[in-house]
Please model this.
Amino acid sequence: MIFIFCGVGFLSEEYYLRKKKIKELQSVKYNFLDKNNFKLNPDLFFEGVYKSFYFKIYNISETVKVDKKNRKLQYEIIEAFYDYDQKLNDNDFEDKLSGDYYVGNVTFENHHAFLIPKDWENPNFEENMDALIEIFHWSKLYPLTAEKWENTIGKELEKKQLENEKLRTRQILKIGKLDIKYIKNE
Model:
């Protein structure tokens, strides 16, 4: 009986919370994205191409404790993919670009940039995306598609992660198909 109650509760909450989030993502706040043919991904983030750059926009919700009370904090993260000429830039080129800009905090890493806008409560997506593209042009960065990123940089990162995990893995016991391993935390 408890399992049925938990199962029904979990499914109904998952369904209604997801439905509520989708309704929120289809509000007036996101009209600019809709007008520019951004699609709502099943994982509940927007993705699309704007001025030749591929963007993903994530709506993040976090609960923070303020004066012994839990408050829900919502903000947007704008992610854009770029490429640059390896010959013109050194190894820590992306680290040097990261920091606070007039539109917000921008982090450059692995050929994509993350922007947390200063107007995070009610962001103007057009201004923020145009500003990020302007920063790209100043820095001599050019567009990179998600597919190309996945096939080049994404595969390299995945390979490095697997190698790193392999180095941290210790085999405890192996009998036939039974293989017990321990992976140390990073």
The two ends are 41 Å apart (CA to CA). The domain at 2-144 is CATH 3.30.1460 (Yope Regulator; Chain: A,).
